[in-house]
């Protein structure tokens, strides 16, 4: 027999409805309710022998609604994996140690004076000098990261003040079960039972049975608590150790569902944290390594180009792997996942400045609005035959230009001709200051290193020629003369880019 429901039931209403149905009943995620006999229950799911058609159905816990899964997992002594984590507010004081390293004190600030702030953590009070403090903040943590078990119990007891109220004792007992304080939880559940059970007398018996099962798995739960705590603190090495220990010691644990959930949470937290860390360090090392290479007096322009295209990315990966104690392959994985993690991929603005001309005219115009406009105009104004002719003319002009440069270099070496030597890329690199070379190399790596994604490219007119590419000057006898702009070398623009 199958009932359709348009509304997924709450735990309380579901419990009442299922109790009214013959046999054992479960509610699927689409709202359907199936009736039958539940068999072969484990951490993954169960088998349902249906009473309506005699069929046998294999179901996983995630096939059920949250309320139905909670109800049946509790009935069969399986840990409820969907309870929201219990957290408390903690004060976080960042401070500099005697070695200069930035540390954190996590607890509750219990006292302040003119010289120090006092933080209490698990019963111990530590003074921190105000002169060493670098920041104050708050964070949600699990209770026993900052409280002893007794201190936390006393705080809960004072807040709830259960007195002779059975319902308050039951609520306090359930909360204590969630934070694994099974001894005090049992005291309050038994007290609720002595007081008549309040509004949920049948619930108390089930809770006491469930409590005994959890107490039997206390050692397993301790490992799970460690996994949760070290995940929250981003100490992934210790998390890996606890996961391996749990797998080795408790392969058939009734807490397997909880363990698997924590492992999934850990992987998600680790990926998010390391993707952000890798991206942050990547952008940092672009600046560090570009500055270092620009300061190398033996570095030529040809070497700088090759470094930006091939070597810089390798060095960045090596530095990040060492800094985060991970493999280079993982660095690549986390770098690739930066677009999927919120806050990881940060837009970087790089510029070639007056060294833009080193890219050549096409390189300066590439992927810009101006370049697309000029390319469109050129294709509209020229037939295919004209375009072939133009290519031939350009090849001849390029050959003539190189021959002219060669003659000028020879003439300059022999102090003949009196003409000014035309600047080469190597000349510019040699004469540029360290900042100019650094900014150029950062931009070149960002665009041609193969690791970053170009998101935008913009142009600004050369300040020397106003974007004309040539300058008009007066000759010695008053006639006008045109010459290539010595700043942009006829490329007309300065190029800047945005990459991620």
Please, could you describe this protein's structure?
It is a single chain. With 500 residues, the chain is of the alpha+beta class. The chain has four domains: 65 residues, SH3 type barrels; 58 residues, SH3 type barrels, CATH 2.30.30.100; 130 residues, no CATH class; 149 residues, no CATH class. The protein is 49% helix and 18% strand. The strands form four sheets. Strands 8-7-6-5-9 form a five-stranded antiparallel beta sheet, with no helix packed on it. A four-stranded antiparallel beta sheet has the order 1-2-3-4. A three-stranded antiparallel beta sheet has the order 10-14-11, with helices on one face. Strand 2 and strand 3 form a beta hairpin. Helix 4 packs antiparallel against helix 5, helix 9 packs across helix 11 and helix 10 crosses helix 16. It is elongated and about 115 Å long. The two termini are 57 Å apart. The N terminus is likely disordered.
């Amino acid at each position: 027999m199958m009932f359709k429901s348009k509304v997924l039931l709450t735990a309380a209403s579901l419990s009442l409805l299922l109790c009214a149905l013959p046999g054992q009943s479960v509610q699927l995620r689409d709202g359907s309710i199936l009736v039958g006999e539940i068999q072969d229950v484990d951490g993954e799911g169960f088998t349902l022998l249906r009473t309506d058609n005699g069929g046998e159905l294999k179901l996983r816990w995630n096939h059920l609604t949250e309320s139905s899964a909670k109800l049946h997992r509790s009935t069969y002594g399986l840990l409820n994996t969907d309870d929201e984590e219990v957290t408390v507010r903690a004060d976080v004081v960042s401070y500099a140690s005697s070695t200069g390293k930035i540390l954190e004190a996590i607890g509750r600030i219990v006292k302040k004076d003119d010289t120090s702030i006092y933080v209490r953590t698990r019963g111990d009070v530590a003074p921190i000098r105000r002169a060493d403090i670098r920041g104050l903040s708050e964070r949600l943590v699990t209770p026993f990261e900052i409280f002893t078990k007794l201190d936390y119990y006393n705080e809960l007891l004072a807040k709830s003040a259960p007195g002779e109220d059975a319902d308050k004792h039951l609520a306090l007992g359930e909360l204590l079960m969630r934070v694994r304080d099974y001894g005090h939880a049992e005291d309050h559940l038994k007290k609720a039972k002595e007081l008549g059970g309040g509004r949920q007398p049948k619930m108390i018996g089930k809770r006491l049975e469930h409590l005994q099962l959890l107490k039997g798995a206390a050692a397993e739960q301790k490992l799970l608590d460690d996994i949760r705590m070290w995940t929250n603190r981003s100490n992934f090495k210790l998390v890996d150790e606890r996961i391996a220990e749990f797998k080795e010691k408790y392969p058939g644990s009734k807490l397997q569902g909880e363990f698997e959930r924590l492992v999934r949470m850990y992987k998600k937290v680790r990926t998010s944290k390391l993707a952000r860390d890798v991206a942050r360090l990547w952008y940092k090392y672009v600046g560090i390594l570009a500055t270092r290479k620009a300061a190398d007096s033996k570095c030529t322009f040809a070497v700088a180009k090759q470094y930006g295209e091939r070597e810089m990315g390798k060095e960045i990966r090596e530095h990040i792997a060492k800094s985060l104690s991970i493999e280079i392959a993982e660095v690549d994985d986390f770098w690739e996942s930066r677009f999927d993690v919120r806050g990881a991929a940060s837009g970087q603005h790089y510029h070639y400045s007056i060294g833009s001309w080193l890219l050549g005219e096409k390189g300066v115009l590439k992927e810009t609005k101006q370049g697309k406009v000029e390319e469109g105009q050129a294709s509209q104004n020229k037939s295919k035959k004209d375009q072939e002719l133009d290519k031939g003319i350009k090849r001849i002009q390029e050959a003539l230009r190189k021959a002219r440069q060669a003659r000028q270099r020879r003439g300059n070496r022999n102090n003949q001709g009196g003409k000014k030597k035309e600047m080469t890329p190597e000349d510019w690199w040699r004469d540029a200051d360290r900042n100019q070379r650094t900014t150029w190399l950062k931009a070149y790596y960002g665009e041609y290193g193969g690791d970053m994604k170009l998101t935008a490219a913009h142009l600004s007119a050369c300040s020397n020629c106003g974007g004309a590419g040539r300058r008009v000057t007066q000759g010695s006898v008053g006639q006008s003369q045109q010459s290539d702009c010595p700043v942009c070398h006829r490329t007309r623009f300065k190029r800047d880019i945005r990459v991620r």
